[in-house]
Amino acid sequence: MQIKELADRAGVTVKAVRYYESRGLLTPARASNGYREYGDADVQVVREIRALLSLGLTADETVPFVDCLRAGHDRADVCPASLEAYRTRIADIERRIAELSALRDELTTLLQDAESYRSEETA
């Protein structure tokens, strides 16, 4: 199938397919006329990439999942490298939550201090 059909079947834009190809996540065959040719397995790969990107993974972080599919697995997340990518992403999210919680606490303290100061000033 050509790039437009792949994009339509996978629910992405042609631009997204080209981006995935530029990142090395897709490697289409080339027809004699130079057009990209994709197989049915590429539809699953693109859908998987899109799903992982929607979870906040970067294109580079999707590589283990794509490799898992390319190795013939029905699921992209059953290989050890995919599981490790999940663990890494979860750890990153937990770190960000801790940073945001600390920021919230600091802002809450500043707000309370400002409100207290304002109350004393108007009294």
TrEMBL record:
GO MF entries: DNA binding; DNA-binding transcription factor activity
InterPro entries in the cross-refs: DNA-bd_dom_put_sf (IPR009061), MerR-type_HTH_dom (IPR000551), MerR_fam (IPR047057)
SMART domains listed in its UniProt record: HTH_MERR
Record keywords: Coiled coil, DNA-binding, Transcription, Transcription regulation
Ranges of residues in domain HTH merR-type: 1-68
Domain of life of the native organism: Bacteria
Pfam families membership: MerR_1
Coiled coil: 83-120
Protein name, as recorded: MerR family transcriptional regulator
Organism: Nocardioides silvaticus
